[in-house]
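Possible regression after last week's pipeline update?

I re-ran a chain I had predicted before the update to compare outputs. Posting the input and the new output here so someone can diff against the archived version. Not blocking, just want to make sure nothing changed silently.
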Amino acid sequence: MTKVDKLTENSDEKLLDKRIIQRNITKKLISKEDYKAYLSKLKDESDQCESATVEEDDPAQV
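New output (post-update):
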């Protein structure tokens, strides 16, 4: 079992959160290599997503 497997199995995925990963790498809580390994193990689920169209209001009419 790899370090990444242990992280994801133990619900420590918050260390891998893309919003704070750079901070965690800087603090040496996780290595870049482990993060890359985690990313490579993620499934491609792009076929499961749905598209959405967002129309912005005209600021002159608000």
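Follow-up from reviewer: compared with the archived run. The chain has a mean pLDDT of 84. Marking as no regression found.
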